[in-house]
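Render this sequence as a predicted structure.
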Amino acid sequence: MEFLTHALAAWLAQGTVDRDKALATWHSKPHGMLLLPAGIRWDAVKIPGEQGWLAYTRLQNRAASLGPILWDRWLDHMYFLVPTGSAALWPGPNPRLVTTGGWLAAPDPRRPVRRAVWLPCAPDGRLTRPDQLFRAADCVLPIGDPAGAAR
C-alpha cells in the first residue's frame, strides 16, 4: 500500500506547475492540503457521500477501472478523477465538475488526515472512465437532483 500512495503522490504532483515544490509542500505540512489544478491531467466529478459510496461500490463490483478518488470527510463528498473534457461525454444531467480553472484541495496521499482521504486506486495514472461512473451513479443520482446539476 505504501508504494501505491507514493506513486499516487508523484502522479498528482506531476499535474502541478512545479512537481518538486508540490511534493516538498506536502512533506513539510504533513496534515496540510495542497491545491491541485484541475483540467490539466484530470477533471473531477463531485458526488455527495452516500451516493458516491454507492457508485464506488458498484464500480468495484463491476471490476471497473478506478482512478484516484478523494473523499472529503468534512463535507462528505467524493471526487472521482476522470479524463479532462469529461463533462461533454456525460450522457445525463451535468455533474458537478471541477475542471480547467478549478482546484481540488487535497491531502498528501502518503499521510492520512482528518479532513480528506484518497481511496485505494491503481498507481499507473489510470482515471475512472466517465461512462462507467455515469452508469454506476445513474441509479443513485435521479434526474433533477441538485447533485447532478452543474454549478
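Summary. The CA atoms of residues 9 and 109 lie 6 Å apart. The two ends are 35 Å apart (CA to CA).
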